[in-house]
């Protein structure tokens, strides 16, 4: 498909990226047949792409040579992205401070289309905690991180980003336009978002956008199991996030303006 500026994407490059994205989205290695069916790529062409990627270290196969996953080169490039990202340098100390204050899981997330991606985390000190991984992608509408970043945008722009009806991750997930729009209006008024078991049963998350860009694309959050929530836990988290955002403003302000 030709883009509005007349650019025609290179088909072979597009297919290669589709393979890498499909492998990144799966928690398990995938077979040639599975990938060919999912991506609608002829097996002969796909085999050549996989062999080329394997030769360069982007893809690895199992001992049978029939199932494929990402290789170490993907990890190296991902790590290089994080190392070069300005937000990581600005926010590292902020994440550390929040982790020390609460001992709970702290995340830095970035809006990526209809999703939010974890860029950094600090682990909870408790055995009962939220499972997450750097690079994990979640629907923005189902997370505090994603909702607070969607709230930085108008409802029309939000509707363009999302595909309705929205998928439900738990029985608490907001899935209709009216429910999400009302939630975003409340977030804009309060200045922070809460995810009350909307992404993971038993976990409450509170998030606030960080003003490194305008509109913001990054946010920080704390996730707490319901079992450890006290009467004033959310209030203390919100106060700490406000202090963290003020610290970011004092440290550097906007990196770029959109």
Q: Which helices and strands appear, and what pairs or packs with what?
A:
Elements: H1 11-25, E1 30-31, H2 32-39, H3 43-55, E2 59-61, E3 67-70, H4 72-84, H5 86-102, E4 105-112, E5 115-122, E6 137-139, H6 144-150, H7 155-161, H8 177-190, E7 193-196, E8 203-209, E9 213-214, E10 218-225, H9 233-251, E11 256-257
SS content category: alpha+beta
> Which ranges are low-confidence, i.e. pLDDT below 50, for 5 or more consecutive residues?
none
Mean pLDDT: 90
Largest sheet: 6 strands, antiparallel
Strand order of the largest sheet: 6-5-4-10-8-7
What overall geometry do the principal axes of the alpha carbons give?
globular
Number of domains: 2
| Second rung of CATH, namely the architecture of the largest domain | 2-Layer Sandwich
Distance between the termini: 26 Å
The CATH topology of the largest domain comes to Beta-Lactamase
Number of strands: 11
What would you report as the Rg, rounded to the nearest angstrom? 20 Å
Q: What is the string of helix and strand elements? A: HEHHEEHHEEEHHHEEEEHE
Strand portion, in percent? 15-25%
Task: Provide structural commentary.
With 258 residues, the chain is an alpha+beta fold. The strands form three sheets. The chain has a six-stranded antiparallel beta sheet, sandwiched between helices. Strands 1-3-2 form a three-stranded antiparallel beta sheet. Strands 9-11 form a two-stranded parallel sheet. The protein is globular and about 60 Å long. The protein starts with 10 loop residues before the first helix and ends with a strand.
């Amino acid at each position: 498909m030709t883009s509005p500026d007349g650019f025609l994407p290179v088909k072979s490059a597009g297919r290669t990226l589709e393979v890498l994205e499909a492998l990144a989205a799966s928690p398990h290695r995938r077979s040639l047949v599975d990938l060919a069916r999912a991506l609608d790529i002829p097996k002969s062409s796909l085999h050549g792409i996989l062999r080329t990627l394997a030769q360069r270290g982007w893809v690895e196969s199992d001992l049978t040579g029939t199932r494929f996953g990402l290789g170490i080169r993907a990890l190296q490039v991902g790590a290089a992205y994080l190392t070069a990202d300005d937000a990581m340098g600005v926010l590292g100390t902020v994440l550390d401070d929040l982790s020390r204050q609460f001992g709970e899981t702290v995340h830095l997330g970035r809006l990526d289309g209809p999703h939010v991606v974890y860029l950094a985390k600090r682990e909870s000190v408790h055995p009962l905690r939220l499972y997450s991984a750097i690079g994990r992608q979640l629907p923005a509408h189902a997370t505090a991180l994603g909702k607070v970043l969607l709230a930085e945008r108008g409802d029309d722009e939000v509707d363009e980003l999302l595909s309705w009806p929205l998928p439900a991750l738990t029985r608490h997930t907001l899935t209709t336009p009216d429910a999400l729009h009302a939630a975003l209006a409340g977030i804009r008024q309060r200045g922070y978002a809460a995810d009350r078991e909307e992404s993971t049963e038993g976990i409450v998350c509170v998030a606030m956008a960080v003003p490194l860009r305008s509109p913001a694309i990054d946010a920080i959050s704390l996730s707490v199991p319901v079992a450890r929530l006290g009467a004033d836990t959310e209030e203390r988290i919100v106060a700490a996030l406000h202090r963290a955002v003020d610290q970011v403003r004092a440290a550097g302000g906007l990196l770029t303006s959109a």
